[in-house]
Design goal:
CATH topology of the domain at 1-88 and 201-260: Rossmann fold
Strand content: 25-35%
CATH superfamily of the domain at 1-88 and 201-260: P-loop containing nucleotide triphosphate hydrolases
Strand order of the largest sheet: 6-7-8-3-9-10
Order of helices and strands: EEEHEEEHHHEHEHEEH
Number of helices: 7
Bound molecules: adenosine-5'-diphosphate, magnesium ion
Number of strands: 10
CATH architecture of the domain at 1-88 and 201-260: 3-Layer(aba) Sandwich
CATH class of the domain at 1-88 and 201-260: Alpha Beta
Shape: globular
Distance between the termini: 20 Å
Length: about 260
């Protein structure tokens, strides 16, 4: 399937061409997960990816992150093939992979340390990113002292501190309750305004996908790939209680029911 560029003047950031992925099974059969995925993602876009459990959303993100190198097709970042993990593509998971015995500050700093950022630059970067996610006052709190929402904000600060070009988010808010989710949606959109990062956000929550995405990609396990995409050109601060948004939600709901 070919998609037209909804933002003609924007630069392509990430490009997937005929990307297919299969896993070998013990009985020497293969399990096809993704088949001929074609998509172009533009700089600064938020793409939300929706689909039922098991349809290959995480697999897609893992390929882009460089966790898996055995696939066919091409994944290009700024025109160059993606190989292995790199700070230009950082993944944030549902369960915050934080060290509970370290403070918020130390959890962000350790990522910079691993990325070999010189020590004298780390402090400012950590402070700046904790500030962006609204956690300046909790810099010295230990992870076990923080709520679920705050932990995810630390994870977000940690991901941002590496200044990735692409932020990959795999159901980052799925385990949180609805009020916390709502404040994190706002924070994510605010920080996107500030940083204009390209974000790929996987979710199985239709409302979340439609609230956050510039485009919503609907995946289907039946075709091992992208069933449909929706360009949502309604300003993000006008999406609550919006009739067009409700219609899109209804359409996507029908799409998902259709994708056994
Ligand atoms: N490491 C793996 N080995 C074998 N099969 C896998 C592996 N990872 C995922 N799969 C299979 O790929 C399919 C898609 O999984 P996944 O990408 O996790 O889906 P989603 O994130 O949409 O729930 C599932 O059928 C799953 O069993
Ligand atoms: Mg998944």
């Amino acid at each position: 399937m070919q998609f037209k560029n909804p933002y003609p003047r924007q630069k392509v950031s990430l490009s997937l061409k005929n990307v297919s992925k299969q896993y070998s099974q013990r009985n020497s059969e293969t399990n096809i997960v993704l088949e001929n995925i074609n998509i172009q993602i533009f700089e600064g876009e938020i793409i939300t990816i929706l689909g039922k459990s098991g349809c290959g959303k995480s697999t897609l993100l893992n390929l882009i992150a460089g966790f898996e190198n055995s696939y066919s097709g091409e994944i290009l970042l700024n025109g160059k093939p993606v190989k292995d993990i790199s700070p230009d593509r950082i993944m944030m998971f549902q369960e915050s992979a934080l060290f509970p015995w370290l403070t918020a500050f130390q959890n962000v700093e350790i990522a910079l340390q691993m990325a070999k950022v010189p020590k004298n630059q780390r402090k400012n970067i950590v402070k700046h990113n904790l500030d962006i996610v609204g956690l300046s006052d909790y810099s010295n709190s230990y992870i076990h002292q923080l709520s679920g929402g705050m932990k995810q904000r630390v994870s977000l600060a940690r991901a941002l501190s590496l200044n990735p070009q692409i932020l990959l988010m795999d159901e980052p808010f799925a385990a949180l309750d609805i009020t916390i989710k709502k404040s994190l949606y706002k924070e994510l959109l605010d920080l996107h305004e500030k940083t204009r990062k390209t974000i790929l956000f996987v979710t199985h929550n239709i409302n979340e996908a439609v609230l956050l995405g510039d485009r919503v990609i609907v995946m289907s396990p039946r075709i091992y790939g992208i069933k449909k995409e929706y360009v949502i050109d309604i300003p993000k601060d006008q999406r609550n209680d919006n009739l067009s948004i409700k219609n899109i939600i209804n359409e996507i709901t029908a799409d998902l029911y259709d994708t056994v």
